[in-house]
TrEMBL record, chains A, B:
Keywords annotated in UniProt: DNA-binding
Residue ranges of the annotated DNA-binding region, renumbered to this chain: 32-51
Naturally occurring in which organism (per UniProt): Rhodanobacter ginsenosidimutans
Record InterPro entries: DNA-bd_HTH_TetR-type_CS, Homeodomain-like_sf, HTH-type_TetR-like_transc_reg, HTH_TetR, PsrA_TetR_C, Tet_transcr_reg_TetR-rel_C_sf
Keyword DNA-binding assigned: yes
Pfam families noted in UniProt: TetR_C_30 (PF17939), TetR_N (PF00440)
Superkingdom classification of source: Bacteria
Record keyword Nucleus present: no
Classification of source organism: Bacteria, Pseudomonadati, Pseudomonadota, Gammaproteobacteria, Lysobacterales
Protein name: TetR/AcrR family transcriptional regulator
Domain HTH tetR-type: 9-69
PROSITE patterns per record: HTH_TETR_1, HTH_TETR_2
Length: 208, 208
DNA sequence: CGTATGCTCAAACGATCGTTTGAACGCCTG
DNA sequence: CAGGCGTTCAAACGATCGTTTGAGCATACG
């Protein structure tokens, strides 16, 4: 396998980059450390030296992206509340925009695939890791939705959030037929996509 | 590993049943033939004898459920068109009801997890198999949606179908927090869930 | 200069993977 | 009863997995 990452970056970063690509393509079990280290252009033993084990590497792949992603989400939610722009659209924007911006970066879309895989694989230790480290973000947004949709029962609200989450996960990981249009700039396309998802989510959350 | 299936059924059926369970729990690569045959209470070599290979077994696991599921979907769609009940709600009912009925059967919900995994794993041969064998169903429903939502551009329509599909896949595979209520009968719960999903899908597809 | 320290390397470890093999089994048919 | 056939069985195959090892290398510090 050919090296696919920048030779000038550090060994740790090259491993993380190659891991993100291969985990997205072949899954956590499907991507072997031999494929991974070959793609990163490092020695096989480097993963266990720098990360301890393959499982720890998986966690670091998530941490590298999710730490900043969820910090941005909470910051955007805080800004919305402070400035009084805390309609449903604004809360959804705070949730969706950071994720979509990431997925439009160089290899960010691959990470979204990795994240979708983590949903599909009901691996308990991985779910526990995600819940422990980032569960408070989802809880905070859920509380905000409950405040903005007071007429919905708790059960009804969970239903709708669950469906919206599924739609966003599915869309952002690029499963479907949606392709980026050729004749618009990156910034315009990103903004159009965000408005698309927000309008869809609003419709799903607010319908009678 | 303990046997988890009815000892009285045939070897082939016992393998298919155990495969569905283990593929849902551990994924296609994560479930080994040794775990699988042990759970089915059959010899290790039985899989290769009856199915040829592990990949062929995966295909048969899909076939056993999807053949009848998609036949029911097309039949329901045909009935709706004949009887004139072909509003958006009716088309969605034809699509959703057979899947939800399956997911409420004994081990049908496990199959829905398997199906969601197939979405997440971007395995080309598996996607090709599903597209070749069941792509015409999705195409027929898409055409029906296009007829009922003529004001939407093709791009817009695909967007919305994609989001709705993601929501349904996510919900039916039981990823989220949704649990069945204890105090209602099975039939009532099924009907409530169907109406839930249909209303959500209608809102997402028709919003301005 | 001598020697720690951090890192990389080839090689090997035991375990587990999907698959194949050839003998043994149960059962029906002639 | 004899023989063919479909099926099951324990055992082994080579390949690949994650991980460990110990030597070798470079750089920094006394």
């Amino acid at each position: 396998m050919e090296a696919i990452v920048n030779r000038s970056s550090s060994t740790k970063d090259r491993i993380l980059g190659a891991a993100e690509v291969l985990f997205a393509q072949r899954g956590f079990e499907g991507a072997s450390l031999r494929q991974l280290t070959a793609a990163a252009g490092v020695n096989l033993a480097a993963v266990n030296y720098h990360f301890g084990s393959k499982d720890k590497l998986v966690e670091q792949v998530f941490r590298r992206r999710l730490d900043t992603l969820n910090a941005q989400r909470l910051a955007a939610l805080g800004n919305a509340r402070e400035s009084g722009n805390d309609r449903l659209e604004d809360v959804l924007d705070a949730f969706i925009r950071p994720a979509l911006k990431l997925s439009h970066e160089d290899s960010g879309s691959l990470f979204m695939r990795v994240l979708a895989r983590a949903f599909a694989e009901h691996d308990d230790s991985l779910r526990q890791f995600l819940s422990e480290n980032y569960g408070h973000v989802m809880r905070q947004f859920t509380a905000e939705f409950a405040r903005l949709l007071p007429h919905l029962s708790k059960e009804e609200l969970y239903w709708r959030i669950d469906l919206v989450t599924g739609a966003l996960t599915h869309a952002m990981s690029g499963f479907g037929m949606i392709q980026r249009k050729q004749d618009v700039s990156e910034g315009v396309h990103l903004e159009q996509t965000i408005q698309h998802l927000i309008r869809f989510a609003v419709a799903g959350l607010t319908h009678p």
